[in-house]
Design goal:
Elements lengths: L6 H108 L1
Length: 115
Amino acid sequence: MSSSPYQGEIIKAIMELSGMIQSMRTEFGEGIGDLKKDVSVLKEDVSGLKEDVSFLKEDVNGLKEDVGVLKEDVKTIKEDMKQMGEKVEMIDAKFEALNQSLLTTQAEVHRLKRA
């Protein structure tokens, strides 16, 4: 078999190309490894965010319950204030009646003193 004058250069070029391919494979593998690490970190972040969202939902539900309780408390307070207002009106009416009775009694005492 006769060797071509370019055979050595062809082999050298093939070896260089093979080295470049190997280097590219290594870099690609490292890049894939880095991407896998990044994806893993992102998955952890997403998991943490899901937990945070879950806690926030629980907080919102708790706040909704608190608002419901507060609304009931406000309703009860309004009813109590209405009843107290009615009692105050009744007490005012009794004081007015007592005042009228006192005036009548004073007038009667005054009349009896003159007689």
